[in-house]
Specification:
Blueprint: E1 4-9, H1 13-21, E2 25-31, E3 37-41, H2 59-64, E4 69-77, E5 80-85, E6 92-97, H3 99-112, H4 122-129, E7 131-136, E8 161-165, E9 170-175, H5 178-184, E10 188-190, H6 193-207, H7 221-226, H8 232-238, H9 246-249, E11 257-263, E12 269-276, H10 297-309, H11 324-328, H12 336-343
Parallel strand pairs: 2-6, 6-7, 7-8
Antiparallel strand pairs: 1-9, 1-10, 2-3, 4-5, 4-12, 8-9, 11-12
The protein binds iron/sulfur cluster (2 copies).
The site of one iron/sulfur cluster has 14 residues, from helix 9.
Length: about 350
């Protein structure tokens, strides 16, 4: 269905959000007190901050990559081993997700979601099936972002509701899913033609405000990078990398994790714990026998760039241009736009 469109006045926002909080956990942007924002489970509607710019940790990682979470636990009962799922799959509403993070969630679905069949992560599939998305158009593009050049500044699907702040005390409210609409229905009025036009104008204006541009078209990324596999940029940049893994921890499309077994010392129970992992760490590719396939920091830097712009996990992009990696890198080398610009320079091996 092409969606139903309404107007929600700002004065009714808290009432609607309070109704949602009663239905389940609402993960939404809140102020952290230092001028920044973070996705947290809302205690009350008044904490919601739809004027947020971005968050360091993406909502995808908050919802699906909880560090230290139990994936499964087991115990011995009368001589038998009984397994229990570690997570209760509670309904979750992710509220206020920016379009680039909605695109990132599509990358999760394509990498480890249901459509991967036997290769899917069952824990993710279970959580995802209980999750609904309420999107929010960007007001001020995040620092270092380049979403407009990737087409991830707007989401056409992947949400139940998309809100746009019309900056006149009203939200444009596009509903693709009837259930959440039900909770908002008392507060909605019909969107008029001029409201559609205003939303379009605001979207176009915001698209021009992204601070960075990636000027290589998507269809050219593979050929561009494959010609530059041996470019000295990678080893030179690797020399500066301190392998802190921040660039992958904050990346909304990174799904790699480690599983650690934690048996109790009496051998009667135990659990399996999910931990973040990163391709930027030395031991990431370690195999039986101690073989490590990406030994040098340069090889790991190259892998990250190829993973984002060359390897195909599906239709969704592996880089959505959010700029988060740029801001957290202590060595100032994680910026994908700068990396691709540097790779344009001629090299002697070509
Ligand atoms: S590589 Fe950087 S800019 Fe691209 S999605 Fe990941 S964190 Fe965002
Ligand atoms: S954030 Fe920077 S220094 Fe840390 S692993 Fe990534 S590229 Fe290396």
């Amino acid at each position: 269905m092409k969606d139903s469109c309404y107007i929600l006045r700002r004065e009714y926002l808290a009432q609607w959000v309070s109704a949602l909080i009663k239905q389940g956990d609402v993960l939404a942007p809140v102020a952290t007190g230092d001028g920044k924002f973070a996705f947290e489970i809302l205690e009350k509607a008044e904490d919601l901050r739809l004027d947020y710019t971005t968050t360091t940790i993406p909502p995808t990682q908050k919802a699906f990559m909880s560090v230290g979470e139990k994936v499964i636990s087991w115990k011995k009962v009368e001589g038998r081993t009984v397994f229990e799922a570690g997570n209760s799959q509670k309904p979750l509403i992710i509220f206020g997700m920016h379009p680039y993070d909605i695109h990132a969630l599509k990358a999760w679905d394509e990498t480890i979601g249901e459509k991967k069949g036997d290769l899917a992560d069952p824990d993710y599939v279970a959580k995802r099936s209980q999750t609904v998305i309420i999107g929010l158009d960007v007001i001020v593009p995040p620092p270092d972002s380049f979403c407009a050049s990737l087409g991830t500044h707007i989401a056409e699907d992947g949400y139940s509701i998309m809100l746009t702040d019309l900056r006149d005390g009203r939200y444009f409210f596009e509903a693709a899913n009837g259930l959440l609409l039900y909770f908002a229905a008392p507060y909605l009025e019909e969107a008029k033609k001029r409201d559609f036009e205003l939303r379009e104008q605001l979207r176009e204006k915001t698209a021009k405000q992204y601070p960075k541009t990636l000027d290589i078209p998507k269809e050219g990324w593979g050929a561009f990078l494959e010609k530059r596999i041996l470019h000295p940029f990678f080893e030179a940049t690797g020399e500066l990398c301190v392998a802190c893994a921040k660039c992958t921890i904050v990346c909304p499309t990174c799904t790699c994790c480690n599983l650690r077994e934690e048996p109790a010392l009496d051998g009667q129970s135990g659990c399996r714990i999910r931990e973040c992992d990163s391709c930027q760490l030395y031991g990431f590719t370690k195999m039986t026998g101690g073989v490590i396939s990406r030994k040098t920091p340069g090889a790991r830097v190259r892998h990250r760039i190829l993973d984002k712009f060359d390897y195909h996990h599906g239709d969704a992009p592996s880089c959505v241009g959010c700029g988060r990696c740029v801001g957290v890198c202590p060595a100032d080398i994680a910026d994908p736009v700068k990396a691709l610009d540097a790779l344009k320079e001629e090299v002697s091996h070509e």
